[in-house]
Amino acid sequence: MSSLTEVAHGFSNLWFTGRLELLEGMSHEAVHRFNAMVRRTKRRRGEWVFVHGDVADSIYFVQKGRMKITALSEDGQEVVYEIVGPGEIFGDTSTILGIPRSTSAQTLEASLICEIRQKDFESLLTAYPELSLRLLKFLGRRLKKAEDHVLNVICHDVSTRVREALLELIACESGMKPDQPVSIKITQQDLANLIGASRQKTWQALKELESLSVLRLMYRSILVTAPHKLRYAHFPETRKPATVKPTLNLVAQGGSANVDRITGFSGFTR
């Protein structure tokens, strides 16, 4: 165990009920058995849960806080594939496939993480076949999200990608009232890595939104003061000159290899 990691005690055995989509609608018995198998740890900001190349023998769930799932591009630049929030699962694909980690997971803030060993998770899937269907649907939604991300990078300018990323991060905040100010704990560099843009262009887009009283740039965070302006205000967009249709045909014909060349991202499993 890392010196920065503490085992967490005293949490309700049924904390996942209604909070983890994977278990929604499952029997009380299934939820109780699941919670009996998980190990909870507190993680400080910046701590690595796993890194590329590690043995994948556990699946993780976020109870509190946020994680970023990352990899390195060929030129050594960090790419943020996804921000994972409360109730979400990560580290599952590599574990299920029995391959080493192809991404890394790092906390963006102080977090409470739950871990279940591969053999225990597989025993749950065997005991409760409906859980396998839920997992399949979850993986399908993740794939759809990845496809949307590729299209977003191809079709939209940096300003639009910044706004859409902020709206998605706001949507992940639990217990937030509509249109109240939201503090998103993410650095400008992490946001740039998430949307596939340079830090300078991301900063310029954020400063434009700040000048419009949409948000305020804070230390290691972004305070969105007017979420409704992100949703409903009209912002002019400069489209990329490249046409989309031929690019998408290339993706369809060449598969993931062409996606890699177009976006600079490589295929990944978490």
Kindly give the count of domains: 2
Instruction: Give the class-level CATH name of the largest domain.
Output: Mainly Beta
Distance between the termini: 21 Å
**How would you state the average pLDDT, rounded?**
81
Oligomer: single chain
Structural class of the helices, strands and pairings? alpha+beta
The main sheet orders its strands as 1-2-9-4-7
What's the CATH H-level homologous superfamily of the largest domain? Jelly Rolls
Task: Tell me the Rg in angstroms.
Answer: 19 Å
Query: Order of helices and strands, N to C?
Result: EHEEEEEEHEEHHHEHHEEHHH
Q: Low-confidence spans: pLDDT under 50, at least 5 residues? A: 9-18, 241-268
Overall CATH architecture of the largest domain: Sandwich
**Number of beta-strand segments:** 12
Shape: globular
Biggest sheet character: 5 strands, antiparallel
Q: How many helix segments?
A: 10
Report the helical percentage.
40-55%
Strand content: 15-25%
The CATH topology of the largest domain comes to Jelly Rolls
Provide a descriptive summary of the structure in words.
With 270 residues, the protein is an alpha+beta fold. The chain folds into 2 domains: 6-153, Jelly Rolls; 157-232, Winged helix-like DNA-binding domain superfamily/Winged helix DNA-binding domain (Arc Repressor Mutant, subunit A). Helix content is 42%, strand content 20%. The chain has 10 helices and 12 strands. A 5-stranded antiparallel β-sheet has the order 1-2-9-4-7. The chain has a 4-stranded antiparallel β-sheet with strand order 3-8-5-6. A 3-stranded antiparallel β-sheet has the order 10-12-11. The protein is globular. Mean pLDDT is 81; it is low at 9-18 and 241-268.
